[in-house]
Specification:
This protein is mainly alpha-helical. Helix content is 79%, strand content 1%. It has twelve helices and two strands. The chain has a two-stranded antiparallel sheet with strand order 1-2. The longest helix has 59 residues. The radius of gyration is 26 Å and the shape is flat. The model has no long low-confidence stretch (mean pLDDT 88).
């Protein structure tokens, strides 16, 4: 009798083990399939961009990257102005949004009264849920006129006699332009930086901060010497995520950047970006060379984003190794 019970228990245990092995195998292959699908989609996008841009690349060669002129009538196309606009607007947006986002995260985790933390955090995260076209409309009809009447004349007069800065803030105050689109981008990527930084700040063990406070450190010293060094990898990841969003943003930038294919040292002047050029002109493009040039811009944006994210990944890897060393 005892032997029969033991055999039934062993049989049931074998069934459970086989069930676990089967579900684990299915889960393993499902995850592998998902990863392969991502690679296939990424490869398909790359092949489509290369195929579509082949006509322009063979016609203009490397000069496509260094030519400013963009004339559909003369069928002369150069990507220098959109590339310049994309990099400058993203850089200015990151410079503005990173300190503000980290400041919001510090306030929410260290300084804000506890009852107000959740409402303020939700309000910040809601900024990420607003459609980009809403930002564009608001920027065109509200923000740009405000800048044209107040901020841009002030900056032009303030730096009129300062070398270098007089060129950066030169020209008539149009309202729309590179500076306006950069500020809109900064507002759009701010929730990404603030939310991710706040989450990684919450992962700092409380005992570390309590120990620092116990030996007499101020709040600023605790943040600078404990919180930020402990979470720098996460902060950098949030910044890179926001940078990727800034590089590819289309509709909001299209509304307020001015869409001018001209290089200018002034950030007040109108300009354009790769995504704005594609959005503005793709439906009107006629002719294989015109369409292929727009596809080439897409391929360039693909490479820029890939290189920046790869560099960020390498930087995070090095920071992780140094932290573990």
């Amino acid at each position: 009798m005892t032997l029969a019970i033991a055999e039934r228990v062993d049989s049931r245990r074998e069934k459970v083990v086989r069930h676990f092995a089967l579900t684990d195998t299915i889960f393993h292959w499902a995850c592998r399939l998902a990863a392969i699908i991502v690679l296939v989609i990424l490869g398909g996008v790359f092949v489509s961009l290369v195929t579509g841009s082949w006509t322009a690349l063979t016609t203009f060669g490397p000069a496509f990257l260094t030519t400013e002129r963009w004339s559909p009538v003369a069928e002369t196309f150069g990507a220098l102005a959109p590339i310049y606009g994309t990099l400058v607007t993203a850089a200015i947006a990151i410079v503005i949004a990173v300190p503000v986002g980290i400041g919001i995260a510090v306030f929410l985790t260290e300084l804000c009264p506890r009852p107000l933390r959740r409402p303020i955090a939700i309000a910040v995260e809601l900024l990420a849920g607003i459609p980009s076209i809403i930002y564009g409309i608001w920027g065109l009809f509200v923000f740009a006129p405000f800048l044209q009447a107040t901020v841009q004349p002030f900056l032009i007069n303030l730096f009129a006699d300062v070398p270098v800065l007089s060129d950066i803030f030169a020209g008539p105050p149009y309202g729309i332009g590179v500076l306006t689109s950069s500020l809109i981008l900064a507002i759009m990527i701010l929730p990404f930086i603030a939310s991710i930084t706040r989450d990684v700040f919450d992962t700092v063990p409380g005992v570390l901060k309590e120990s620092a406070y116990g030996i007499g450190c101020t709040t600023w010293e605790v943040i600078r010497r404990i919180v930020i060094p402990h979470t720098r990898v996460g902060i950098m990841g949030g910044v890179m995520l926001a940078l990727g969003r800034a590089l590819g943003e289309t509709m909001a930038v299209t509304f307020v950047i001015g869409n001018s294919h001209r290089l200018s040292a002034s950030i007040i002047a109108p300009g354009t970006t790769i995504s704005a050029t594609i959005a503005n002109e793709f439906t009107e493009a006629d002719g294989d060379l015109y369409v292929s040039s727009l596809m080439s811009l897409g391929l360039i944006l693909f490479f820029i984003t890939f290189l920046i994210l790869a560099a960020a990944r390498y930087m995070l890897l090095r920071m992780g190794r140094q932290a573990g060393a």
